[in-house]
Fold this sequence. Notes:
There is one protein chain. By secondary structure, the chain is an alpha+beta fold. It folds into three domains: 159 residues, Malonyl-CoA decarboxylase, oligemerization domain (Butyryl-CoA Dehydrogenase, subunit A, domain 3, Up-down Bundle); 134 residues, Aminopeptidase; 145 residues, Aminopeptidase (3-Layer(aba) Sandwich), CATH 3.40.630.150. The protein has 21 helices and nine strands. The chain has a seven-stranded mixed sheet with strand order 1-2-3-4-5-9-8. A two-stranded antiparallel sheet has the order 6-7. Helix 1 crosses helix 3. The termini are far apart.
Amino acid sequence: xxxxxxxxxxxxxxxxHGRELIGIKDxxxxxxxxxxxxxxxxxxxxxxxxxxxxxREILRRWQLKGASQKLAFLNLLSNEFDLDHQAIATAAADxxxxxxxxxxxxxxxxxxxxxxxxxxxxxxxxxxAILVAxxxxxxxxxxxxxxxxxxxxxxxxxLGSWFNRGFLQLERISWQSSASVLEKLIEYEAVHPMQGWxxxxxxxxxxxxxxxxxxxxxLPDVPLIFVEVALTxxxxxAIGALVxxxxxxxxxxxxxxxxxxxxxxxxxxxGVSFGNFLIKQVAEELKDEFQQIDTFSTLSPIPKxxxxxxxxxxxxxxxxxxxxxxxxxxxxRAILEIEKDTPLDMTIIEKQIETxxxxxxxxxxxxxxxxxxxxxxxxxxxxFHLSNGACLHRINIDANTSQRxxxxxxxxxxxxxxxxxxxxxxxxAYAYNGEIPLSKDLQRQYKxxxx
Length: 451
């Protein structure tokens, strides 16, 4: 198979020739080669060599820009390469007046020129990687520069196609994988960060651990999303032994697979969903290798629970609506057994929670099942697994006693259980009705919440 290094060398050679043809010289930019003019030339260009040269030059300049210059370039994309709304209105009117031939024109006008520009920029050597990084920069700017959302919408549309599941390859990552891939596991592990190579070696041990990742041909050394799996004889209720580099290696025959860490490597691919395919395909891989494994569960964090509960109890500067605050506060008061007129003292409440395991469990169950966004679980991890057909199986108090675990959820973690017999019905019930499937124990505890 031809390596990507060879291909990039060829593209660079073609681009060098094209650069000479269009007269781009090293050194200061001039008025003939502004970003806007280069982008327009690329959109109109017909020669492959010159187009590759233009694409490479535009992306090279992007990488050399400072923060303010990058913002200016993104604004250029937003304003100068946007939809022509007047032309769309005219074509739509022509079509409505009976001009059926105008339909093709109307369809072409509804795609911003920006999308074709991105496609052509992708011709450059390392074009895909640079464009993904460009979107990562864009995402950091959106909150303060919402006018750039049209650029992000086009990025999402194209990246969703370029990183379609059909282009991704599932690979097992082991201690024998390339050094560049192993380094990226350490770099991108965000759920349970690794301290170094010994941490990684333990998590890749052949006897009781597995790790799998999705790879894309344009980014061969980057695991776009990867999952770490512990092979056990039971559904784990604490994270410590799973991530401790000194933990004992199990020689027991496993019957359970615990998905304990799922990581998206590139922020530029946020919103491009392939995690659901990962879990299902990894489960199939594990079944093929270990026919006795019949239980597939996660041990998942609840990353925003404590912060969210605080935001409803300490309302100064809250982004929640007054109606939402009033409702949730009344529910939390019932769980915390605080009278309606009693002031909410967070110091007292925190001590109450930290010393009462039953109260922690109630708060977790309330957060995971009652607090929602448009009929879906507010918690992003819960929403991910429930959308994939998992069941909320068990809440584990003090499962993560690290400083981070305590800050996120008072140390609590969750098992989401994937069962073949119910995964489809669970998915349908959640997708269409927002119903959250609970184990029998949690169903009983949910009824006792009284909310």
